[in-house]
Design a protein that fits this description.
The chain is α/β, with parallel strands linked by helices and 219 residues long. It folds into two domains: 134 residues, 3-Layer(aba) Sandwich (Rossmann fold); 72 residues, no CATH class. It has eight helices and six strands; from the N terminus they run E-H-H-H-H-H-E-H-E-E-H-E-H-E. Strands 3-2-1-4-5-6 form a six-stranded parallel sheet. Helix 4 crosses helix 6. The radius of gyration is 19 Å and the shape is elongated. The two termini are 22 Å apart. It binds magnesium ion (MG). Magnesium ion binds next to loops.
Length: 219
């Protein structure tokens, strides 16, 4: 089984957050005739992704600025659901197709704070990735606490903490993904005694077990 992280591995979460906050700022700025930069600076500073989700944040903004909640909620759904697949890294989809084609099972394994469970479901749905994977686990505690076959599975992850925990749980097939605009994570040196294969794109992950028997292109 390939357990693959979602945020910042398969999906460009930072870009989504930027687009959502930008959309909220635009709507409030237009409705209330407030300078865009001013409102954007406030919104960016006050959004805390560990304690807020976009929906609760939209609610509090609608109260603060006295505009209807739906004026923020509808464009939010358009970003996350209707246009959600634009945040999925294209190389990730190709990789999932390759796994399927070579007879491997895949599972999106994603951690969120409990408050973000419903938002994560929306992101997953909008991402367009669900049709390419066999399973999805969304967990609210450390992934390494799950009863998984750590030794015989492959883990693909961007979070240094999760990579260290996987290793310490017995995982030896770990791939680190370093995507652009994820410097907080990518600059960190791992505190484990081995080197982890590290890639900026899934296209570069080439292992014997993933090579196709024939030269058919992946559709
Ligand atoms: Mg991640």
């Amino acid at each position: 089984m390939y357990y693959i992280d979602f945020d910042n591995t398969l999906y460009e979460t930072g870009k989504l957050t930027k687009d959502v906050l930008n959309s909220f700022s635009n709507i409030i700025s237009t409705q209330k005739q407030i300078n865009f930069q001013e409102i954007y600076a406030y919104i960016k500073d006050s959004f805390n992704s560990t304690t807020d989700n976009f929906i609760s944040f939209a609610k509090s903004l609608s109260i603060k600025y006295n505009i209807s909640f739906n004026q923020l909620y509808n464009p939010l759904m358009e970003i996350i659901i209707t246009n959600g697949s634009q945040y999925t890294f294209p190389d990730a989809i190709n990789f999932l197709k390759k796994l399927k084609k070579t007879g491997h099972k895949s599972c999106i394994l994603t951690f969120v704070f409990p408050k973000n469970l419903s938002q994560q479901a929306l992101k997953l749905t909008g991402s367009g990735l669900l049709e390419y994977v066999d399973e999805v686990y969304t967990v609210t505690s450390s992934k390494s606490k799950l009863h998984l076959d750590f030794e015989n599975s492959t883990f693909i992850e961007d979070s240094p903490k999760e990579i260290e925990d996987f290793y310490n749980s017995g995982a030896r097939n770990i791939i680190r993904i370093i995507k652009p605009n994820n410097e907080k994570r990518t600059s960190k040196k791992l505190n484990i005694p081995v080197e982890i294969p590290t890639f900026t794109t899934f296209d570069d992950i080439i292992t014997p077990e993933l090579s196709l028997n024939d030269e058919k292109t992946i559709e």
